[in-house]
Amino acid sequence: MISPNQYIKRLGKKVKEQRGVFILYSILRLFVVLIGIRSVILHNYDVTATCLLVLALFFVPSLLEETLKIRIPALFEGIIYCFIFAAEILGELGHFYTQIPIWDTMLHTLNGFLFAAVGFSTVELLNRTNKNVNLSPLYLTMVAFCFSMTIGVLWEFFECGADIFLGQDMQKDFIVDHFQSVTLDPNHSQEVIHVDDITGTVIHTASGEEYTIQGGYLDIGILDTMKDLLVNFIGAIVFCSFGFAFLKYGENRKVANKVVNGLTLKPEVPEDIEGEDIGE
Q1: Number of domains in the chain
Q2: Cβ–Cβ contacts within 10 Å for residue 152, how many?
Q3: pLDDT tens digit string along 199-219?
Q4: Which one, of 246, 244, 279, lies nearest residue 262 by Cα?
Q5: Distances from the Cα of 208 to the Cαs of 167, 201, 205, 213, 218, in angstroms?
Q6: 277 assigned to some structural domain
Q7: To the nearest whole number, what is the mean pLDDT of the chain?
Q8: Distance from C-alpha of 13 to C-alpha of 37, rounded to nearest angstrom
Q9: Are 195 and 66 members of one domain?
Q10: pTM here?
Q11: With 70 as the cut, is the pLDDT of residue 9 above it?
């Protein structure tokens, strides 16, 4: 167990080494606290709950470091804080998801990139520290890619569940002006019926409400899910390309070297705490 004195020393050393990350973290946390205080005054408790969630998520990197005995590079940690702030505060509370169409796509691409880095780090650490494990660069990067895609799929499961069971709209809608379907075949022979140039649709509800969709029909989440998985795929491929070049060619690929070293987790070094034994 780490004593409070040792933890404070470690925290102080980290702040000194990663001053930029600490300043970024402090600024983002201040914004979240101010937004949370304002939401309490306005009795907007949904916003308050989101702010509390963000503050809790901000502690996750430090918690992972202490629990897993790893070191998160400053660049990676800074990106994590910005990602959380962009997704929850700007995206949800600032309505960036609807006001800036590319916002969701950008975050899902970054998500694929970052989780490929996490998967790469996990397996690369095992590959480097265990004498019985010697994975080839191609195999290791394939594992990292699959890890990233799995996280992407699980997130889409979460979005779908939130939409179905919690009445949310996390899987955003697209207006589509054509489609093809066997459902419209009156003979039920699985003939594909093509419907093109849809100019609008009208939705009638049992309660008598009516909604008009201009320009096509409302695709409720399918295309958004496929788009999210596609950009997750692209993000994962980009990092895995750097990872493969790093493992295959090492220092001969300076860009890959910088990217991988800046975004991959490192094992904790006990000597970091001025020679003290953190295991006592």
Answers
A1: 2
A2: 23
A3: 999 999 999 999 999 999 988
A4: 246
A5: 21, 16, 5, 16, 19
A6: no
A7: 88
A8: 31
A9: no
A10: 0.84
A11: no
Q: Based on the fold, state whether residues 200 and 261 are members of the same structural domain.
A: no
User: For position 276, what pLDDT does the model report?
Assistant: 45
Q: How far apart are CA 51 and CA 34, in angstroms?
A: 9
> What are the φ/ψ torsions at residue 161 (nearest 5 degrees)?
-65, -40
Is there a single domain that holds both residue 205 and residue 85? no
Range with top average pLDDT, 127-131, 204-208, 248-252: 204-208
pLDDT in tens, 151-203: 999 999 999 998 999 888 888 888 999 999 999 999 989 999 999 999 999 99
- Residue 269: band (very low, low, confident or very high) from pLDDT cuts 50, 70, 90: low
Query: Three-class SS string for the chain?
Result: CCCHHHHHHHHHHHHHHCHHHHHHHHHHHHHHHHHHHHHHHCCCHHHHHHHHHHHHHHCHHHHHHHHHCEECCHHHHHHHHHHHHHHHHHHHHCCHHHHCCHHHHHHHHHHHHHHHHHHHHHHHHHHHHCCCCCCCHHHHHHHHHHHHHHHHHHHHHHHHHHHHHCCCCCCCCEEECCEEECCCCCCCCCCCEEECCCCEEEEECCCCCEEEEECCEEECCHHHHHHHHHHHHHHHHHHHHHHHHHHHHHHHCHHHHHHHHHHCCEECCHHHCCCCCCCC
pLDDT tens by residue, 27-56: 999 999 999 999 999 999 999 999 999 999
Same domain, 148 and 243: yes
* Dihedral-angle region of residue 275 (phi above 0 means left; psi in -120 to 50 means alpha; beta otherwise): left
Report yes or no on 279 lying in a domain: no
Residue 179, domain extent: 175-218
Residue with tokens 């408790």: 45
Rounded to whole angstroms, how far apart are CA atoms 230 and 237?
A: 11
